[in-house]
Amino acid sequence: MKLIFIYGLPAVGKLTVANELSKITNFSIIHNHLTVDLLSPVLEVGKGKFWEYMFKLRFEVLKIAIKENIDIIFTSCYAKKVDDSYLKRYINLINKNKGKIYFVQLKCDDKVLFQRIKKESRKKYGKLKNINGLKKLLKELELRSPIPFVDSYTIDNTNLSANKTA
C-alpha cells in the first residue's frame, strides 16, 4: 500500500491537485472533508472530541486500505504539534505493514491564497470560504510549517496548474 499525504493551508489546492494526481496514478482519494462531513451531523466541528474521532476514523480507513492493498492520496491541513501524535500513528501503521508514505506540502503566495479561498468550488464540501476566517485560523494554529519529523516534497503552486503540480 502506498499513501501520498498532501498537506497545506486551506485553499492552497490540495484536493484539486489530488484529483489530477489520481488521474495519473489511479490512487483513491480520501480528502480532508470526507471525514469532517461524515462526523459533522453527529458532532459540532472542532468541539469536544470532534478531532480525536476524525483522526480515529482516518486511522481505520488507513487500516482498510492496507488490508485491501489500495493506494490512496490523503489531503489535510497540518497543524504543528496538534496533529503530530496522530500523524506518527499513521506512519507507524504504514511502516509496520511495509507500506510507503510520501509527504507533499503545497504552498502558494498569500495573495493567490486569498483569491482561491473565495472560489465557488469550495462550497461543495462546506470548506472555509472567506479571508477573515482563514486569517483567524492562521492566528490560532501553526499551519504553515512542514511536518518536522518527515521528509516532505514542497511545491509552490502559486503559478502552476493543478496538472503541472501533480
Structural class of the secondary structure composition?
alpha/beta
Largest sheet: 5 strands, parallel
Q: Fraction of residues in helices?
A: 40-55%
Number of H- or I-type helical stretches: 7
Strand order of the largest sheet: 2-3-1-4-5
Contiguous low-pLDDT stretches (5 residues minimum) are: none
Kindly, what is the distance between the CA atoms of the first and last residues, rounded to a whole number of angstroms? 19 Å
Give the overall form. Answer: globular
Strand content: 15-25%
**Rg, Å, rounded:** 15 Å
> What number is the mean pLDDT?
90
- H and E order: EHEHHEHEHHEH
- The number of E-state strands comes to 5
Oligomer: single chain
How would you describe this structure to a colleague?
With 166 residues, the protein is of the alpha/beta class. It has helices at 14-25, 32-39, 50-68, 84-96, 110-116, 131-140, 162-165; strands spanning 2-8, 28-30, 72-76, 100-107, 152-156. Strands 2-3-1-4-5 form a five-stranded parallel beta sheet, with helices on both faces. The two termini are 19 Å apart. The model has no long low-confidence stretch (mean pLDDT 90).
